[in-house]
Amino acid sequence: MPQPSYQMINGLSEVIGNYDAVILDLWGVVHDGITPYPSSIAAMQALKEAGIPVALLSNAPRRSSVVIARMEDMGIERSLYGPAVASGEIAYHQLRDRHDAWYGKLGRKVFRVGPVRDHSMFEEQDVEFAETLEDADWILVTGPDDDHDPVTHYEDMLHLALSLSLPMLCPNPDREVIRGGERIICAGAIAGRYEELGGDVRWEGKPLASAYDFCLQAFDMGPDARLLVVGDSLSTDVAGSNAAGLDIAFVTGGIHAEELNAPRGTLPEKAKLDQLLQVTGRYVTYAIGDFCW
């Protein structure tokens, strides 16, 4: 089946007139986890001046308030965007309310895998922290305990968890990310391995439809709004947008820059991008080298 055609653009200003609002990814598009990319703040300012509302949708495994605070620390003003939805916020509400049957079966004792910065997931939650897997009812994985851990570091833990039939909540489906120029694993890599072994994993975030539903409810743009997604991951941003029927500007200089042989700010050879899209079965509306105006 032939891939739908797409347009290569140098900036959002070339096509933004076709849209009423933008849903913006963060990591790999706006910032690298430490600092904003050179063009991102200017692009957000230009969107604001053009009267285009912006919502953020990120696979960050923490409360949205923490994401907003981190953005402000980076110099990204709160006035530049509207709703900010983190996958951790979606999981937080599910875990707190426990209306969903999967969440309703979870006990109180949770074994945590991930850094301290993700502990906002437990604010006002009725949980108890288990020090060992044998004492736990379930597992929350928000990432590696240390950024430099490989997935193999958790192999023994995952086999033990499987033998105990522990369910796992993963509020970040991303498998890897580039942080400060260094490629590191994310929670999705650990949870994906557990699922491969036969473990019970509940995912929250992109590309799941629930993430877009949660974001759109917060955005409240109306059913006829023309929305453009900006993202850099084929497996989350593009896959989710395809499933939701939304147009997407694919930032080729993000997580896929190396395999496309096109550094941030440059467009790849069309043949390379065509091949990657064909192999992954994804389709994009626009290809853009960087999130820029």
TrEMBL record:
Pfam families to which the protein is assigned, alphabetical: Hydrolase_6 (PF13344), Hydrolase_like (PF13242)
GO MF entries: phosphatase activity
GO cellular component, one term: cytoplasm
Transmembrane feature ranges: none
Name of the molecule in the record: Sugar phosphatase
